[in-house]
Amino acid sequence: MMNNVPNDVRKSYFFWMTAIVAGVFEMIIAVISALLGDSPSIGGLVIQALIRIVIFGVLTWITAKMYRGKNWARIALTILLGGIGTLSLVIDPIQWLIEGNSLNTMFEGVNMMSLIFAATRVIHLAAVFAALIFMFRPAANRYFRLEQPLSP
Known about the structure:
The protein is mainly alpha-helical. It has one domain. It is 76% helix and 0% strand. Helix 3 packs antiparallel against helix 4. The longest helix is centred in the first third of the chain and has 30 residues, at 7-36. The protein is globular. The relative contact order is 0.20.
């Protein structure tokens, strides 16, 4: 790895990878829950899992490019994970509240899997926000303005 990578970029990289790992863990929990429940289509579940694995792989590659100082990767992470990804994580709970459900009923039917999933989701969101903050701090901004000679 490069020696001139600022600590803020290193921290951002760590938090992006934490978010990606949390996403993988959430997917595993969802698959296990579906398999233990009445999953209507195992084939559909496998296809969704494979698509997510490819997406996680691409995001890991983009995160590595960000670490190497590629500003396009920083922009891509901001849009894909910071924007679209965050929206995908919070849209279901927001929609659930808009449909008239109350916070009082949120804990009805909670089991160990849903608690683990919720804790992972909180870690996931916190990691995304931390990664975004560190990725745009002054030292990181200077780093991304420099020409980074390693790999495109």
